[in-house]
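We close this part of the discussion by returning to an individual protein. Part of our work consisted of pairing the sequence of a single chain with a tokenised description of its backbone. No coordinates are needed to read the tokens, only the vocabulary itself. The amino acid sequence and the backbone structure tokens for this protein are reproduced below:
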Amino acid sequence: MIPAPRDPGTYRVALVCLGNICRSPMAHVVLESRLDDAGLGDLVEVTSSGTGGWHVGNPMDPRAAATLTRAGYDATRHRARQYEAAWVDRNDLVLAMDHDNLDNLIALGGVSPRVMLFRDFDPVEPGGDVPDPYYGGDAGFEEVLSMVERTSDNLVAALSALKALGG
């Protein structure tokens, strides 16, 4: 179940992976697009970040960006950021892309019903990991995009059910 918004107005979703150049930015771009298509773009704010800081300020991995571009998404605006522990209190929902990053979030003080796995919303394999495609080939990025699209669709449906995000 999706947590109710902390405050009326904007619902805040943070997507978190390791370096914020592959999985979470792909999910960020897709989720924002799906929210816009559903008429929720002005009601839901999406951010992405990584638990590690070595890519801060860098654009998305070129293979992730190319995969998104081929699918019709705009991957040009992303710049990597590092997750800050205080963000658990600023977001309505913090979604880790895998169990390792979920453990990292919990270690940073993210013990909260608002901290979950991104794929907890996956209709095919709820609770699974979004695999890190960084050390693989293009097929891994395509697989991630497929997971992200279907999970984003399900997440948008769950957000839509929040009575216009008023809780």
